[in-house]
Automatic annotation (TrEMBL):
Keywords, sorted A to Z: Oxidoreductase
Residues annotated as signal peptide: none
Enzyme Commission designation: 1.2.1.16, 1.2.1.20, 1.2.1.79
Main EC class the enzyme belongs to: oxidoreductase
Molecular function in Gene Ontology: glutarate-semialdehyde dehydrogenase (NADP+) activity; succinate-semialdehyde dehydrogenase (NAD+) activity; succinate-semialdehyde dehydrogenase (NADP+) activity
Taxonomic source organism: Amorphus orientalis
Keyword Oxidoreductase: yes
Span of domain Aldehyde dehydrogenase: 29-481
Protein name per Swiss-Prot or TrEMBL: Succinate-semialdehyde dehydrogenase/glutarate-semialdehyde dehydrogenase
InterPro entries: Ald_DH/histidinol_DH (IPR016161), Ald_DH_C (IPR016163), Ald_DH_CS_GLU (IPR029510), Ald_DH_N (IPR016162), Aldehyde_DH_dom (IPR015590), Aldehyde_DH_Superfamily (IPR050740)
Protein family according to the UniProt entry: Belongs to the aldehyde dehydrogenase family.
UniProt record, GO biological process: gamma-aminobutyric acid catabolic process
Record-annotated active site: 260
Amino acid sequence: MTRPAAFNGYADPHRHAAGLYIGGNWLAGDGIAVIDPSTGDLLVEVADAGVDEALSAVDAAEAAAAGWRSTAPRERSEILRRWFELMRERAEELAVLISLENGKALADARGEVAYAAEFFRWYAEEATRIGGEFRHTPSGAHNILVDHEPIGIAVLITPWNFPAAMATRKIAPALAAGCTVILKPAAETPLTAYAMARLGEEAGVPAGVVNVLTTAQPGPVTAAMLADPRVRKLSFTGSTGVGRTLLAEAAKSVVHCSMELGGNAPFLVFDDADLEAALDGAMIAKMRNGGEACTAANRFYVQSGIHDAFVEGLAARMAALKIGPGYDPQTQCGPMITPQAVDKIDRLVADARARGARVVTGGDRLTRDGFYYPPTVLENVPTDAEIAHEEIFGPVAPVYRFRTEDEAVQLANDTEHGLAAYVYSRDIMQAMRVGRRIDTGMIGINRGLMSDPAAPFGGTKQSGLGREGGVTGILEFLEPKYFAVEF
Ligand code: NAD
C-alpha cells in the first residue's frame, strides 16, 4: 500500500509542522526531518529548538506556575477530563498520525491512543484526591502536619516508541499535581506531541502550563534547562544509557529525577502452562509495537517438556504475520523506526547464529523500501549471545530451554535490567513464588500485557527510578512539606 495523498484532520502531518509550542504560542521553524519509516520518505520538517528557545519555555512555565498551582483541583481535574474526551473524539486521527511517524500497526496505534487518553481520565480523578498527613509525635507532645505541594517546573523527555502514551503518562500527573511542564518529545515522532498540545489548548489548558519543544541537540538543550534553578523535576523515559547521562546532569543542580529506562524482559513458560494461553501472551508480549516496547519479551525461557510445542506454535504465529506500512489496516507488523534499528537487530541475530542458534522462521532482513525486519524465532540460543543481554527492540523471539525452577529464576535475573517479566504456569503457587524471586518492578502472571494507567509502572535495577501511573504516580510531582505545629 502506498501512503494516501491526504489525511483527515489531526492525522495530517502538515497541520503539526507549525513548530514549537511555548507560552501558548506556535513558533514556526524547521531543521528536523520527520521520516515515514514505512517508506523512508520525508513527511514534514519541524522546528529545531536551541538553548534560547528552551530557556524561553522555562520562562513560560514559570510565568504560568503560580496561576496553575492555585487553580482549584476540581478545575484542573475538569481540564484533564476534557483533554481525555478530546483524545477519544480524535482517536482515529491520532492513531493514523502515530502509525505515520512511528510505523506501528494501526491496531497498536489505536491501542496506544486509548491507553494514552486513560492517563488524563485517571489523573483527572486523582487531582481532587491529593492528601496530606496528620499525626502526633511518639511522645505525644507535638503534632506533625504534612502537606503535598507541587514540586515545581518539570522537564519531561519522552521516547519515540509510544509518542502519545509516554507523554500523557507524565503530563497528566504533573498537571494534576499543579506543576507546569516542558515536554521534549523524541525527534523521530514529534507530530503526535504537537497534535496533543493542540488538543490540550482546546481542552482549556492555560498558556505556558504545557510547553512543547523539539530539538536535534537534546544534550545541551536539556542541560541548559536542568541548570536553570527554576526547574525542579526531570521525568525521563528512554534508554538506560541516556538515563545515566541525565542523572549525572541533574546531579549538578540536584534536580529530582524519575527514570523509566530500558528493559530485558524474561518470559518464562513452565511445563504445566496452558500452551495456547502462553502463545497468545507471547505474541502480545513480543509483538506489540513490532517488538519496540520496553516491556517486550526479550528472552523466552521454556521448560523442556513444553519447549518444542511452544517453539513450533510461536514460529507458526510469527510467520503468519502480515508485514507492511503501519497505516495499512491489514498490517500486523510495521517497520522499525530507523535503518539503524534494523542494523542492530540484524547484528544481534547474526551474532546468535554465529554462536549456534537455529533460525526457525525469519532471520533475514527484507529487501524493500522502508525499515523492515521480519518476525523471527530463534532456538538453541546460547545464554552468552549478545541478544540475551541487549534490548532487541524488534520482532525477534530468542527461545532458551530450561529444566528446573531454580535455573529459570537464575536465568531471568541474569541482567542489569529489572523492568518486566512474564510467568506462565497453571500452578498459581509456583507462578507467584517465581514472581517473587524475579527482580523486576512488574510481573505478568499468565498475562502478556501489564500496562494499565491505574497500576504503578516502573522498574528495579538499571530499569529506572520511581513509578508512573496508579495512585503513586502523582507523588513523583509532589514534594512533602512538614509543618511542626504547636497547638
Ligand atoms: P533514547 O534514550 O535514545 O531517547 C529518549 C529521549 O531522550 C528522546 O527524546 C531523545 O531525544 C532524548 N535524548 C537522547 N539523548 C539525550 C541527551 N543526551 N540529553 C537529553 N535527552 C536526550 O531512547 P529511544 O531510542 O527514544 O527509546 C527507546 C528506549 O526507551 C528503550 O531503551 C526503551 O526500553 C526505553 N523505554 C522505556 C520505557 C519505560 O517505561 N521504562 C518506556 C518506553 C521506552
